[in-house]
Amino acid sequence: MNVRRSAAALAASAVLCVGAAPAALADTAPPASPSAPPVIPSGLYGKSDPTYDGVWRQSFALLAQHTVDVEPAREAVVWLLGQQCQTGGFPSFRANPAVACDANTMYDTNATAAAVQALKALGGHDGDVKKSVDWLKSVQNEDGGWSYVPGSPSDANSTAVVISALAVAGEKPAEIRSKAGKSAYEGLLPFQLGCAAEPAADRGAFAYQPADGKLLANADATAAAALAGLGKGAAVVPSAENTPAAPLACPAANAADPVAAAQGAAGYLAEALKKDGHLMAVTPGADQPTPDTGNTVDAVLALAAAGHKESAAGALKWLETNSAEWAKGSPAALGTLVLATHATGNDPKSFGGTDLVAALNATGPAPQGADTEATKVDSKKEKPSGGQNVWWIVGSCAAAGVGIGILLSGRRKKNHS
């Protein structure tokens, strides 16, 4: 779940680009070059441009801090609350929260789902959470799933992230139905490669979306779907359960069972980790696969959630010595590492010689209290914002033009900070 945001944008733009970008290019002047450095709000974690991942990375930073009993800075919580539109939805980032959201606002289901998890965990924001949950329900596709940008075709990643958020908020995803009567799980499970999939090693995996009518295994979608099928979010409570992950049960006793689907997804991830101790991916422009740190973290978290810490142990060990550069300065990456380490029953403050919690705290405003003891957050919410311009779409289109490889090898694995 870590740096999930960027390629979700690419995927959405692939749908939007054909019609939107040409018209936009005809009528809109390109942004000035060289572009001005991004203005980083004081309450935001990370120093990189937040245009595409501001809400996502803030949510994971806050969620991770809360999970390890660190009380986030009030201004960090206020910043996140101020990103919410009056509809309840969140864009990826609102540069000016004083400007109301309108018809041009580019809403982001992934960001909204992440914010729901963070605000629910922090407590005291039930009204804000309910508004976001209601908004997510309102943009459910007829097939029961969700897309990154409402109105686009459903994808497994967005559907899974939303399901996890709904479950964390106390909803029952199996009972959340589209106007066509399809449940949230009916929107997710068709993305799973079943007992007839070839090669057999891909059985249990989830695809991001069909490619030329075929489902192709995608580790990022698989990890997210495992959490969703289990009805869990990213803040996994460590469990004493520790059994080896098993392959997808074939023939399936109940192909509509989300828990069985989640366990099949966990089996795929465990097997994929065995060869190198981590996942591999081919990045755009490359002809050889390279270690996929982000999806490896996602896999560890999913396996821990499914009760298979033993199957995740080797990958966690690999991450201890190979994730530092990938996670450096990135609140989303550091936050997910904290969550994955915590979920496996290990100490995020002693991770291969690194204190992940201190590294995460250093990316934003200092937590409350020198001893980080929990105190109640009583923040006033700023109200709502304007939309993102067409260059968000154009930029995504240009990135999407490198090919479908990035979608098949996992999303948001570039270091967003």
Automatic annotation (TrEMBL):
Transmembrane annotation, as ranges: 390-408
InterPro entries, per the entry: Prenyltrans, Terpenoid_cyclase/PrenylTrfase
Keyword Signal annotated: yes
Region of interest called Disordered, as start-end residue ranges on this chain: 363-386
Signal peptide positions (record): 1-26
Domain Prenyltransferase alpha-alpha toroid positions: 59-168
Keyword vocabulary terms for this entry: Membrane, Repeat, Signal, Transmembrane, Transmembrane helix
UniProt biased composition (Basic and acidic residues): 373-384
Protein name stated in the entry: Prenyltransferase alpha-alpha toroid domain-containing protein
Organism for this UniProt entry: Streptomyces nojiriensis
Lineage, uppermost ranks: Bacteria, Bacillati, Actinomycetota, Actinomycetes, Kitasatosporales
